[in-house]
Design brief:
single chain; about 300 residues; alpha+beta; OB fold (Dihydrolipoamide Acetyltransferase, E2P); 5-stranded mixed beta barrel; 4 helices
Length: about 300
C-alpha cells in the first residue's frame, strides 16, 4: 500500500471561535457516538513580509470509543475544548480568550461538486488534539511541512488570465489508507520560485515547508461609465493558501521517494471517487472506473 506522506501542521494563536457538537453515526450496523465540528484560531503572522491577521479553521472529529473499545483520547480532548476552553467570541475580546497550540494538524482537501455541477476543491486543516497554553508562551504561527510528488508547475494567473508573478505547484499528497489528495501550493518568493523551477521536476518526491494563509482581503472594483463618475464596488475575498517558503533542493532518493506506479494507481482511484461524487450530484448514474494510463500522471481532470 502507498505509504503516508509527511504532513504536519503547527498552529499557535488565540482560540477565536468554537463550533463543536455531539453527534452519532452507524458503523457495522451499530450506533457510535461522536463529537466534531470546527474551531478557528486567530494568528498574527507575516505573509510575504506583510503582517497579516489569519483566521485558520481547524476541522475536528472523533468517535467516543476506539476500534478496540477503549475511550478515545481524541474525543476527550475535543470535548474539553468544547466545554472548558474560552474563545474570543465567547469572551467578547482577545483579552479573555485562551491561547492554544496544535502540533499535529494535517493538510487535507475538501472536494465536492456544487449544485451547478462545478467542481470545488480547497485545502482544509484537520486535527484531533489541541493544547491550552499560557498567553506569554504563545509564539504565533501557522506553518506546515509536507512531502509530496510534483504533478506539475505552472505560472499562477488571475481570474482574467493575467499572470500574478507567483508559481503554482500541484502536488500529489498521499494520505492514510492509500488515498491521495491533489494539493495546490503557491510560491511567491522569487528565490524560491527560481530554485523550484531549477530543481523540482514532474514525478519528483520533494519536501516543502511553508505558511498557511487563511485570511481575507478587500478588493475594490472600478467600473467605468459613459459619462460622470466611475462606479466603485468593494467585495471581501476569502483566501485559503498554502505558501511554500522552503524545502528540499533535490528530489528524494529511492527508498524515501514515493513509487510512481503506486501514485498513478491511487490517482485512478481518486478519479473514480470524484466521478462517483459527480454522478451523485447529478442524481446518480453508474459509470465504470477509469482505466490506468502509463506515463504522465492522470490527475483526474
Amino acid at each position: 500500500m502507498l505509504k503516508q506522506a509527511e504532513n504536519t501542521v503547527r498552529i499557535e494563536g488565540l482560540l477565536s471561535e468554537i463550533d463543536l457538537k455531539y453527534g452519532s453515526f452507524t458503523k457495522n450496523g451499530s450506533p457510535m457516538n461522536s463529537i466534531g465540528g470546527i474551531i478557528k484560531v486567530h494568528v498574527k503572522q507575516e505573509i510575504n513580509g506583510t503582517p497579516t491577521d489569519l483566521e485558520v479553521p481547524v476541522h475536528m472529529f472523533a468517535s467516543e470509543y476506539t476500534n478496540a473499545g477503549a475511550k478515545n483520547p481524541a474525543y476527550q480532548n475535543i470535548e474539553r475544548v468544547m466545554n472548558e476552553f474560552t474563545s474570543i467570541a465567547a469572551a467578547g475580546g482577545e483579552a479573555g480568550a485562551d491561547a492554544i497550540r496544535i502540533t499535529n494538524g494535517r493538510i487535507t482537501m475538501n472536494e465536492y461538486y456544487g449544485r451547478d455541477g462545478r467542481f470545488v476543491s480547497f485545502p482544509r486543516i484537520t486535527a484531533s488534539f489541541v493544547n491550552k497554553i499560557r498567553t506569554d508562551e504563545m509564539k504565533p504561527c501557522a506553518t506546515f511541512s509536507a512531502s509530496f510528488v510534483v504533478a506539475n508547475k505552472t505560472n499562477e494567473t488571475s481570474y482574467d488570465g493575467v499572470e500574478t508573478g507567483r508559481l503554482k505547484v500541484t502536488g500529489v499528497l498521499p494520505q492514510y489508507g492509500g488515498r491521495v489528495d491533489l494539493v495546490d501550493f503557491i510560491v511567491a518568493n522569487p528565490n524560491a520560485i527560481n530554485a523550484i523551477n531549477q530543481y523540482w521536476n514532474d514525478n519528483d518526491t520533494v519536501i516543502a515547508n511553508g505558511r498557511l494563509n487563511f485570511s481575507s482581503k478587500i478588493e475594490t472594483v472600478v467600473k467605468e461609465v459613459d459619462f460622470g463618475e466611475a462606479q466603485e464596488t468593494t467585495r471581501t475575498i476569502s483566501v485559503s493558501e498554502l505558501l511554500i517558503t522552503g524545502g528540499s533542493q533535490a528530489a528524494l532518493e529511492a527508498g524515501a521517494a514515493f513509487d510512481i506506479e503506486e501514485i498513478q494507481a491511487a490517482l485512478v482511484e481518486r478519479k473514480a471517487r470524484l466521478e462517483n461524487l459527480k454522478e451523485s450530484a447529478e442524481k446518480g448514474k453508474t459509470r465504470t472506473a477509469p482505466t490506468e494510463q502509463k506515463g504522465k500522471l492522470d490527475l483526474g481532470f
